[in-house]
Design brief:
There is one protein chain. By secondary structure, the protein is an alpha+beta fold. It has helices at residues 2-14, 28-40, 66-76, and strands at residues 16-23, 44-50, 56-62, 80-87. The chain has a domain at 8-87: 2-Layer Sandwich (Alpha-Beta Plaits), CATH 3.30.70. It is built from 3 helices and 4 strands. A hairpin with a 5-residue loop joins strand 2 and strand 3 (56-62).
Amino acid sequence: MAKVASINLYNSLFLQQNIVVKVAMFDAKKTRKAMKIAVGVSGVESAALIGSNKDQIKVTGEGIDSVELAMLLRKGVGCTELVSVGPVEEKKPAAAPATPAASQPPATVVPLEVYPHHHYSSYGGPYYHVYETPSNDDPSCTIM
């Protein structure tokens, strides 16, 4: 279960996604302000007004935080509702003719060698200086 959650988190952060937000926009000024806020969020590539009343904003981009977008729109414009968050549907060309590239052999994949556990060598321990202390055990002492 944790692996599925981490994959979903990865997909939501690093893949193209569509976010549809319904915003209470009653006049042109609020519409402009909402679009300005939506386009200013990090990762946004495009924004468009959709819906029958043009009261929804469809934002497309990579790595967009949908909660941050909704929060900023609530703060700047007013009542905001997050309608949907999902991946971008890729449009494939219909019945593309076979290209000469299909006759070429597939490229070989060379794995990238990564050494994640590289440890740097330490500088070593402190260097202790050796010195002699004078001793009071003189054999020529006659008192003892």
